[in-house]
Amino acid sequence: MAADNAVLEAVNCNLCGSADEKLLFIKDGLRVVKCNSCGLMFVNPRPKKEYLQKLYSEGYYRISKNDSIGYRDYEADRRYHIANFKKLLDSIESFKKGGRLLDVGCAVGFLLEEAKAQGWDVYGAEMSFYAVNKAREKGLNVFAGDITDTGFENNFFDVITCLGTIEHLPNPVAAIRKISRILKDDGLFVLSTPDAGGLIGGRRFQYKPKEHLYYFTNETIKRMFEKEGFKILFIAGERLKKPLHFILERLGYYFPHSNRVVRVLEAIFKRLGILSAGITIPTGQMIVYAKKG
To answer: Is residue 22 included in any domain, yes or no?
Structure first.
C-alpha cells in the first residue's frame, strides 16, 4: 500500500491523546511514528477501518501472495496452533480452573476448540467474517466484529485472551477498557503482542504496518493496563512451536538480503521432507498475564 489518502486517516496517540510525534521510519509506504509524550509507536496516517475489514478475507489466512500480510495457510498448521494453545491453557489453569473463556481475535477458533475440549465454556470475538464463519461451522459461539461492539454483560468472563490481536485494532485502549468491564473482578487477562522494545523488535521484526497499527513496549503495555484498572502479574518473552516453512517465510520478509539463503534452505528441507516440521522458537512477542484491581 502506497501512501494513498483515500484509504488512510490521521490519528492522535491512542494512549495519551497527544499529537506530538516523531517519524521512526517508513515501511511498505506507511509511516511508523513514536509519541513524544508517552512513547507509544503506531502507524500514522493509518489504513481506514473499511480497508482493514477487506484485509482479513480468506486470502489473509490462506495462500496470501503478499509476504507482508497474512499467512501461507493458517489452517494447514492446525497441529502447531493446537499444541501451542494446549500449553497456554495449562498455564492459564495454574491461575484459573475452568469457567467462561473469551478469545478476542479468535480467528478460526483453534484455541476455543481446545478450551472447549478441556471443559471451558467458550466464546470468541473476531473481525474477519471469513474466520467467523469457519469458527461457527465448528459450533463455536463467535461474535463478528470489534470487541468494543460486543454486548457481553459486565463481569461475565473468568478468563479473556487476546493473542496477537491488540496491534491490529483501531482503538486498543477502548478494547482493553471493554475487556476490563466484561472480565470478572478476580478474572485473568492474557495478552500477547510483538515486543517493539526487544532485541528482535529493535531490528524492525514484525513491523507490518498494513495490518499492525500499534507497537508496544513493556512500558507502554504497563501504562495502558494500569490506565484501565489491570494489575500485571508478569510479562515474559513468548516461545511458540512453528513449522520450518513459516520461519523461512518470515526470515525472507524481515531480512530481504537473506532471500537466496532462504530459497536454498527451503529446497533442502523440502527434499528431506521436513519443511512442515516444527521447532520451538522465540517469537519476538511478549506475553502478559494480568488481573483486575
So the answer is: yes
* Cell matching residue 31: 509511516
Which of these, 203, 201, 191, 269, lies nearest to 236 by C-alpha position? 191
Query: Do residues 155 and 177 make contact, with C-beta atoms less than 8 angstroms apart?
Result: no
Of 95-104, 148-157, 193-202, minimum mean pLDDT range: 193-202
The pLDDT value recorded for residue 253 is: 65
269 part of a folded domain: yes
Q: Are 55 and 169 in contact (CB under 8 A)?
A: no
In the numeric block, which cell numbers belong to residue 135?
Answer: 469458527
Q: What is the DSSP letter of 232?
A: E
Q: How many domains are contained in the chain?
A: 1
Distance CA 249, CA 255 (A): 10
pLDDT category, 52, cuts 50, 70, 90?
Answer: confident
**φ, ψ for residue 74 (rounded to 5)?**
-60, -45
Q: What percent of the chain has pLDDT over 90?
A: 65
Domain of 92? 8-61+71-292
Residue-wise pLDDT for 186-208, tens only, equals 999 999 999 998 754 445 556 88
Whole-number Å distance between alpha carbons of 140 and 146: 17
Task: Give the β-pairing of 46-47 and 100-104.
Answer: unpaired
Whether residue 75 lies inside any domain: the answer is: yes
pLDDT in tens, 264-275: 877 887 787 777
- Say which CATH number the domain at 21 has: 3.40.50.150
- Say if CB 292 and CB 231 are below 8 A apart: yes
pLDDT of residue 4 exceeding 70: no
Q: What pTM was estimated for this model as a whole?
A: 0.89
**CA atoms of 265 and 262, how far apart (whole Å):** 5
Asked whether residue 106 is domain-assigned, the answer is: yes
